[in-house]
Amino acid sequence: MQLAMIGLGRMGASMVRRLLAKGHECIVHDMQPAAVAALQSDGAIGAASLAELIAKTARPRVVWLMVPAAFVDAEIEQLKSLLAPGDVVIDGGNSYYRDDIRRAEMLRELGMHYIDVGTSGGVAGQGRGYCLMIGGVPEAVERLVPIFAALAPGIDAAPRTHGRSGEAGPEEQGFLHCGPPGAGHFVKMVHNGIEYGLMAAYAEGLGVLRNANVGKCGRDSDAETTPLRNPEFYQYEFKLPEIVELWRRGSVIGSWLLDLTAHALRKDAELAAYSGRVSDSGEGRWTIEAAIDEAVPTPVLSAALYQRFTSRGEAVFANQVLSAMRNEFGGHIEKKSQDAQ
Amino acid sequence: MQLAMIGLGRMGASMVRRLLAKGHECIVHDMQPAAVAALQSDGAIGAASLAELIAKTARPRVVWLMVPAAFVDAEIEQLKSLLAPGDVVIDGGNSYYRDDIRRAEMLRELGMHYIDVGTSGGVAGQGRGYCLMIGGVPEAVERLVPIFAALAPGIDAAPRTHGRSGEAGPEEQGFLHCGPPGAGHFVKMVHNGIEYGLMAAYAEGLGVLRNANVGKCGRDSDAETTPLRNPEFYQYEFKLPEIVELWRRGSVIGSWLLDLTAHALRKDAELAAYSGRVSDSGEGRWTIEAAIDEAVPTPVLSAALYQRFTSRGEAVFANQVLSAMRNEFGGHIEKKSQDAQ
Amino acid sequence: MQLAMIGLGRMGASMVRRLLAKGHECIVHDMQPAAVAALQSDGAIGAASLAELIAKTARPRVVWLMVPAAFVDAEIEQLKSLLAPGDVVIDGGNSYYRDDIRRAEMLRELGMHYIDVGTSGGVAGQGRGYCLMIGGVPEAVERLVPIFAALAPGIDAAPRTHGRSGEAGPEEQGFLHCGPPGAGHFVKMVHNGIEYGLMAAYAEGLGVLRNANVGKCGRDSDAETTPLRNPEFYQYEFKLPEIVELWRRGSVIGSWLLDLTAHALRKDAELAAYSGRVSDSGEGRWTIEAAIDEAVPTPVLSAALYQRFTSRGEAVFANQVLSAMRNEFGGHIEKKSQDAQ
Amino acid sequence: MQLAMIGLGRMGASMVRRLLAKGHECIVHDMQPAAVAALQSDGAIGAASLAELIAKTARPRVVWLMVPAAFVDAEIEQLKSLLAPGDVVIDGGNSYYRDDIRRAEMLRELGMHYIDVGTSGGVAGQGRGYCLMIGGVPEAVERLVPIFAALAPGIDAAPRTHGRSGEAGPEEQGFLHCGPPGAGHFVKMVHNGIEYGLMAAYAEGLGVLRNANVGKCGRDSDAETTPLRNPEFYQYEFKLPEIVELWRRGSVIGSWLLDLTAHALRKDAELAAYSGRVSDSGEGRWTIEAAIDEAVPTPVLSAALYQRFTSRGEAVFANQVLSAMRNEFGGHIEKKSQDAQ
C-alpha cells in the first residue's frame, strides 16, 4: 500500500523504514529537510511541503501524522483543504483521546476519516514491530489492515497464550481495532499509565537494594533523627547489574522494561549520566483523570506520576510549608547537610 | 511534688518552668552547665552531675528523662546504680514503645518503676500545657497524677465535648493513662503519624493554590511535554496568608497546625527561610511499621512520610532508573532546565 | 439587607436562620413547601415559586442559590428571564469553579453579576458561623459585605494570629474575596481536598490504634500468610474515645475535625451505625485534577480520595485481577474467610 | 549430585521433578505420605521421616527445605541433631532475611552451612526453570553450583543483553550468589515487593479500561454526589482479553505477568471465579519495612501492599470513622446502595 507520513522524528522515521522494508510505498515530509533526505536515501519518496506530499499521494489517501500532540490540530487544519473525501488521516502520536473524538467528527463532516493509533514500542520498534491500538470507524480501519500488519510485530513475537488456537486474531499479531474514535488513544493512555507504574515499581525496588548498605554508614542521633535500630541487617553491597540480569530469567518480574534496565545498568551501574529529572508526556496524567471520572482507585499509577512531578522540584513549596510548621510547633531548624535524616 | 528532670533542651526546660510555676519542686541536670544555670535562675535546684541530681532528690524519687531517644538507654544504665527500689523513671521523649517494654521489665526486676510519657505540644506547651499519653503500671502512674495534671493543659483548653458531663476525667484535662508499659509512646507514635498526614494535607493543598496561576506561564510543547489544555482556568493569584487566616474561622479544616501555618505565612508568604528539607524523627516510620504488622492500610500516613524522605534527596537513584529506562525505550534525553515539564 | 434564598436544605435553611438572627430580611423558596413553611415560622418571607420570590425581592436583587451543584445551571437558566440588570446571583453550593467562570461571563453579558461563594462550616454553621470563600468582580462583592459579615463567624472565633494587629481584615472575620469569578469555589475545592486528607489521616491512625491488640489473636501460618513476628508488641486494648478526647487538649493534632470525632466516638466507640461506605462530593476529585494540571504532587490528597472510592467497592475488579494473577503464577487459591491474612 | 528435599508442596515437588529430569538424585520427605509416594513414582527416593531422609543421604549432605516460612525454624531444630559438620542446609522458601542471618550463625557454630535461596518462578518453574537468588558463604554456595544450574532456566531463557559477550555469568543462567547469609532472601524480598507493584499497575489500568463505559450508566445527582461532567467521553466497551493479548507483542509493557493475565482473561473475561480478596505472604511487608529503615521512598510498592490489605476488609474501621465525621459536620447519612457515588 501507499502511505504518506508527516513527522520523521525518532518514531516516524523508524516506522517508515519498517514499512519500506515490508514493501510499502512511503511518501514522507518533515519540517526538517535533512530528515526527509535521510529517508529518501532509504527508499522513501520525499516531499518538501504538505502540498507536495498530498499531491504525490494517490486517492483515497492515507496520511499518517507522527508529530508532537500539541501540533496535530494545526497539521489537520492545513490538511483539511488539501485532502479529498474518502481520504484517511491517522494520528499515531500521543494525542488525548478527547481530541480524537472531536477531530473524527470534524473530518467526518468533510467526508474524510480519522483514525487514532496509539503506538507503543519505542525506538526498538523498527526491528521489533509496534504495538498498535486503533480507534475509528470500521470501514476506515479495515482498509488499512495491510499497513497495521506490517507495522505490528506479528504473532511470533510472543509465545501463543495457552488455550488460543486456530487462526491468529489481529490482537495476536500486535494490532487491534479497540473501538470508535478515541478508543485507540484511550487504550494507549492507559497503557502508558500502567507503564509509569511498572517503571516506578522497578525503580523503587532497586532503590531499596542499593541502600541495603546503610548499616555501614553512621547516622546522626539527635532529637530530630531516629537512629537506625539494626545496622547489622543493612550490611549488603548488592550488584544491581547482576541482580537485574538475574531476574530476566525465570523470575515472576521478567519484562521488556526489565530487559532495558539490565542494558542500562550494564553500561553504568551508577547511572551517572542521569540526574533523575523525569518528564511525563501526558498519558499518565490523563489516565488518572479518567480514573477519577470513573471513580476507579489508582493509587499506584498516581504515586508513579507524582514521583515524576516531584523529581522536577514541584514539591518544594509544600516541603517548605512542612518545614515552616515544624519550626512553628517544635522550634525545629531545617537540617541543611546531605546526611540529614 | 518533687521531680528530677534530666535534659533541659527546648522541651525539658519549658516543662520545668511550667512545673515550677505550678508550685512543684524541680531538681535539674543537663550536660550543658549553662542550661542548668538558666533554670536555677528561674527557681529550679541545679545539679552538676547525675549523682548530685539523685542525691538531692528525696525517695521515692521521680526522675524524668527529656533527652533524645538515642540516649535514653545510656541514661537509664547510669541511673540504675544510683536509684533505689520504689523510685520511678519517666521517659518523656520520643522513644520507640518497644524499648519501653524492655526497660520497664528491666527496672521492674530492680524494684523500680518505668513510665513512658508521650509528650505533645511543642515549645508552646509551657504556656499552653502538654498533652500527655502515659504508659505504665497503675500504682506508679497514679502516684504522679499531680505532676501530670500540672503539665497538662486542663479542661478549659477546649470546649467540653457535647454529651460529657459531671467530673472531668483525666483525658479531659489533657493526660491519660493509656495502658501498660509502652502504651504511652505507642499512642504518641500514632499521634505523630497522624501529625505527618495532617501536615502533608495542608502542604499539598497550599501547593495547589500557589500554582493556580500556571495558565499565565508558557509551557513547552514537544514530544515529551503535554501542553496545559486549559490555561484560562489557571489564572488565579491567590494570597496564601489571607486564605489560611480565613480558614481559621468557621471552616471544617480549622486546627492548631493551621493556626501555626497562618503565623508562618503571615511572617513571610514565600517561606523563603526554608529550603524544604524535612526531617522525620522516627514516630512516623514506626507508625507505618505497626500498621504493616497489623495489616492496617495507611496510604495517607505513608505518603506523608515518603514525601519527607524524598524532600531530602532519597529518591534520586530511583529517578535515575526512570530516566535510564526512558532513554532505553524512547531515546528520551533528560531535560535539565528548571522549567522542564 | 435583603436576600433571596433558593434551596432550604440542611445548609440553606441554617444560613437563613443565621441571617434572620442578625437582622437581615430573607425571602425564601424551595421545591418542598414544608421547607418554606418551616422558615416562615422563623421569620422569613416565603415564596411558592421562583417568580414569586423574585417579585417579592427589591432591586438590585441578591439571590443566593443553595442547591446541589447539578441543579445550579437549571436554576440560573430560569432566573435569567426573571432578573434585571444590576441583580446579583450567588452560588453558595459546591459548584466546579469552571462553571462559575462560564456563568459569570453569561450573566455579565446580561448586565447581571455572579458571585461564587465556597461555604464551609456544615450544619454547625448556624451558630458557629460559616467560612466564606468568595469569587467575583469587586463591585458586586463589596456590595454584599454586610451579608458576608453576618454569615461569617467573626474575629472572636479564633485567637488572633500573633503579629496581626489593628483593624481586622475580612479574612480575620471569616470571609474573603479570593479573586475573580471561580476563585471562591477554587479555594473551597482545595479546602475540601485538604479536608479529605485530614480526615483520612485521623481515620488511618485510629485504625492503627484499634488493631494494636492483634498480638492476642492467632494468625494463620501457611505458605500464603506471614505470621506476626512479635505478638508481644501488639497486646494493647486502647480506648479510642478517651484517646481522641485526650488529644483535644495540648496536642499538635487538635482540630475541629478531632472535636467531632471525639463526639462521635463518645456516642459509640464502635461506630456501629456506620458501614464505612464513604461518599465524595466532587471537590476532592477536582482538587486532584487541578493538581495534575499544575503538575503539583498530591499523594496524600489522592490517597484519601481513593480510599473513598475503594470503600464503595470500586477496586473489586482490580483485586480480582490480582487474585487471577496469583492463581496463574503460584496456583494460589483465594482465601475466603474473614481471618485470611 | 545428590540432594535431600524436605517439603513437597507445589514448589518443592516441581523442583524435585526438574532436578530428577536433569539427572540429579533426590531423596524426599514430606509430612504427607502421598506426596512422597507421588515423587517416588517419578524416580525420587522416598523417606518416611526426617531421620530416614538424613540416613539415606551421603555426607557432606545437601538438605533443601521447601516449607512455609513459619515452619523453617522447627525443621532446622530437628535437623541440627541429625546432621554432621560440613553438611549444608538450604532454605528455599520465603523466609525473612533476618532469620537467615541468625540461622547461618547458629549452624556455623556447629560446623554446618546455611544457604538462603530466594526462589522465583512459581508452578511454571518445573519446565521454565527457577530464578535463584542465593545468600551464604562462598565455599558452601560454590559447591552447589550444579544444583543451582539445573534448577535455573539457563541462558536461552531470554535474549542476551546487548553488550554482554563471552562466557555467560551465573546471573545470565538464572542463579546468582548475591552476598552473605540473608542476601538471597533480601533480594527475593525486594523482587516480591516489585512484583506487588507491577501486579497493581496492571490491575489498576485494567480497572480504568473496564469502567470506560460509565458514561452509559446514569449517576445520581444530589448534594453528596458529583455528576459525571462528560459522559460522552466514557462510552467505550473495551474487550480486556483482546487488549491484554495485544499488549503482549511490541508494547512497552510486555511481561510474564501480562502473559499470565492474558491467559486468565482468555479463560474468563469477567474473572468471576475470584472475589478479590488478595493475600500477601510477607515479602511485600518486609520490603516496605526495609525501605523505611533505609529512608527510601516506596510509594508505589506501599500502595500495592495496602490495596491487598484493603481488599480483605482491613480498612473498614477507618472508613467508619470517615462516615462518622461526615455525619458530624454535614449531617451526611451514609449511602447504602451499590450505585452510591
TrEMBL record, chains A, B, C, D:
Native source species:
Variovorax ureilyticus
Into which EC class is this enzyme placed? oxidoreductase
> Which Pfam families does the annotation name?
6PGD, NAD_binding_2
Q: Which intervals hold domain 6-phosphogluconate dehydrogenase C-terminal?
A: 184-336
Q: Name the EC number(s).
A: 1.1.1.343
Q: Which NCBIfam families match?
A: gnd_rel (TIGR00872), PRK09599.1 (NF007161)
Which GO-annotated molecular functions does the record name?
A: oxidoreductase activity
Quote the pathway field: Carbohydrate degradation; pentose phosphate pathway
Q: Which family does it belong to?
A: Belongs to the 6-phosphogluconate dehydrogenase family.
Listed A to Z, the keywords are: Gluconate utilization, Oxidoreductase
Question: What SMART domains is this protein classified in?
Answer: 6PGD
Q: Which domain of life is it from?
A: Bacteria
Q: What is this protein called?
A: Phosphogluconate dehydrogenase (NAD(+)-dependent, decarboxylating)
